[in-house]
Write a structure and sequence with these properties.
With 96 residues, this protein is mainly α. Helices cover 80% and strands 0% of the residues. It is built from four helices and no strands. The longest helix is centred in the C-terminal third of the chain and has 27 residues. The termini are far apart.
Length: 96
Amino acid sequence: MTTWTQAALGCSIVAAALVIRTALGELRRPGTAREQWRFLTNRTAVMAGTASAAALGAALAFGGTDPGHAIWALLSGILTAFIVDRLMDQASKGRE
């Protein structure tokens, strides 16, 4: 069973790794941090991430699992939004 503390620690480690990756990229090429985090302003990507987190959270809640998994559902929603933004960016570049 995953407890809230274990889930929060695991997600914190993943989030810290992403922030460190952003910081290192910014040191190498200034301006890349804004590119990496722009998915937060993309409505379609945010809605896809929200839907993903809600669906996974609901599935876990109805499955009767430990509430600590809700934190992982939130992280999966954020990563889904990031991926959707990147795919939309690639698709728009392909049309040019």
